[in-house]
Amino acid sequence: MAIVKDKVGIVSCSGEDLPEGTISRIATRIVLEKLRPDETVTICLPLFLAGSEDERAFARVFPTIAVDGCDKRCAEVGVKKYSGEPVATIVVSEIVKKYPRLKVKSRDNLSDEEKELANIIAETISKKVDEVLGRKSREV
Amino acid sequence: MSEEQKVAIVACAGMDKPLGSVARACAFKVVEVLKPEDSVLVCIPPLVAGVKPHSEWIKEYPIITIDGCPERCATKIVAKMGGKIRGRVFIPQSVQRHELRPKFSADIGLDGEKLAEKIADETALLIDKILRK
Description:
The complex is a heterodimer of chains A (140) and B (133).
Chain A: E1 8-12, H1 19-35, E2 40-43, H2 45-50, H3 53-61, E3 64-68, H4 74-82, E4 88-91, H5 92-96, H6 112-133
Parallel strand pairs in A: 1-2, 1-3, 3-4
Chain B: E1 7-11, H1 18-34, E2 39-42, H2 44-49, H3 54-60, E3 63-67, H4 73-80, E4 85-90, H5 91-98, H6 109-130
Parallel strand pairs in B: 1-2, 1-3, 3-4
């Protein structure tokens, strides 16, 4: 099946197990709502996993980025299983390690430090979106 | 308390609708604040991927599902995986009952928080009922 390259699907870890999951979720919303609203759509991971053919078909036809909170990589595993290889996987816990001054603690309400990390992850996702669509990265 | 006397909470964590975020906030209030000794939170993606302990909890414990929209993904997934559902919470009904509407998916706002608290209280009562407390 041909891959259509004008939108990118983002499948985010729904993040109830670890704080990094919450960061991946918020970062994804920042991309969808503020940074790349015209270029991205979200694929609801629970709906995707529950068997929604619409969500799975979208991920088969459009390039999809998996945003995972930890190295269990549940979003990536789900996309691979039901729709094929994602074009990229961003693992939040790996990026967080590069910023030891920013502490990750809460699974529920994000602190200012966690919000800063969410913005950093959102920028990373946006750059990957630009790369996938073959566009020059904009300032974010 | 023995390990058998717990309830597993499986909540929609859908991020494309504010009610998914309310379901998620409600689940955290139950397992972290109201019933930390009596409940565990099952995360849907690792559950489907077969990652322990999530895949074991739904075999071991009675389950309450919290669904954020009519797709009812939490309930569908648990049913598909053979879990024993003993209680169901449907957030759209709770919105009507309490007349509180969340703002956005990323920030449910004050009314969304109040709604999550009310539903969490109801869920905690449901846990007591299941565990016959």
